[in-house]
Amino acid sequence: MDMDSGQTIYQQLGESAGLLSIIETFYGKVVQEPLLAPLFPEDISPVIERQHQFLTQFFGGPPLYSERHGHPMMRARHMRFPVTNERADAWLACMNAALRENDVEDELREFVIARLKGPAYHFVNTP
């Protein structure tokens, strides 16, 4: 991956279809992760849809999330869930594994995980 390619992360991840594949793989892992599964509804489809909208926007694609839901305000939206450092670690591990399984090259995968670490730990609200 050439970080100076002029492409957004969204484009480098394969735009909508590539990102959706990563997100579906990711949530397949999340629902199996004992630290994370209790935080999510049985029907994970709406969560996948919102995550696709958010990450599309977050990684430089169209502003789907804001168009449908307003300002992301992600920390506020996550306050009702007990987010711990361990859960943030588990979330990032699931995403890292999903990126690997979708053959995202190492440099891009590492960049994506670094970009997601800030928000993941910003959501921590429980010791």
Fold topology:
Blueprint: H1 9-12, H2 15-30, H3 45-58, H4 64-69, H5 74-78, H6 85-101, H7 106-122
Helix pairs in contact: 2-3, 2-6, 6-7
Mean pLDDT: 93
Q: Roughly how much helix do the residues carry, as a percent range? A: 55-70%
Number of helices: 7
Total strand segments: 0
Structural commentary:
Its cofactor is heme. Belongs to the truncated hemoglobin family. Group II subfamily. This is Globin. Keywords: Heme, Iron, Metal-binding, Transport. Pfam families: Bac_globin. The chain is mostly helical and 127 residues long. The chain has one domain (10-122): Orthogonal Bundle (Globin-like). 62% of the residues lie in helices and 0% in strands. The protein contains seven helices and no strands. It has helices at residues 9-12, 15-30, 45-58, 64-69, 74-78, 85-101, 106-122. It is globular, with a radius of gyration of 14 Å. The mean pLDDT is 93.
Keywords:
single chain, 127 residues, mainly alpha, Globin-like, 7 helices, 62% helix, globular
Task: Briefly summarize what is shown.
This protein has helices at 9-12, 15-30, 45-58, 64-69, 74-78, 85-101, 106-122. It has a single domain (10-122), classed as Orthogonal Bundle (Globin-like).
